[in-house]
Specification:
The protein has 102 residues and is mostly beta strands. The protein is 13% helix and 36% strand. Strands 1, 2, 3, 4, 5 and 6 form a six-stranded antiparallel β-sheet that branches. It starts with 6 loop residues before the first strand and ends with a strand. The mean pLDDT is 90.
């Protein structure tokens, strides 16, 4: 659970990997989004995969929750973090999402 963003993430399951295009089969699936968190309406439970951290640099792939914890532990309230995300439900599209950490 990532309180700084109001989300819960977990590694991509084997079932989910089948539904995802090859370059995005790594990453962390968002399993819950708090309605009071900064990621509300930006990330969607069971539909969004966090693939990479784009900002703050350097750009880095997310393979485990430890990778994301390492990035967020360096940020303070009010800082921005940008992700490359893959939307499973939106016909496999990617987009960039920026969230202000709390």
């Amino acid at each position: 659970k990532l309180d700084k963003m109001g989300i819960t993430v977990e590694p991509l399951s084997a079932d989910a990997r089948v539904r995802v295009d090859d370059p995005y089969r790594r990453g962390l699936v968002v399993s819950d989004v708090s309605v009071t968190g900064p990621a509300y309406r930006k990330l969607f439970a069971d539909e969004t995969i966090l693939v990479e951290v784009l900002n703050p640099g350097p750009r880095r792939a997310l393979h485990s929750t430890t990778d994301l914890d390492a990035v967020l532990s360096k940020l303070k309230s009010g800082d921005l973090v940008s992700f490359l995300v893959y939307d499973i439900g939106a016909q496999g599209t990617t987009r960039v999402v920026t969230v202000k950490v709390q």
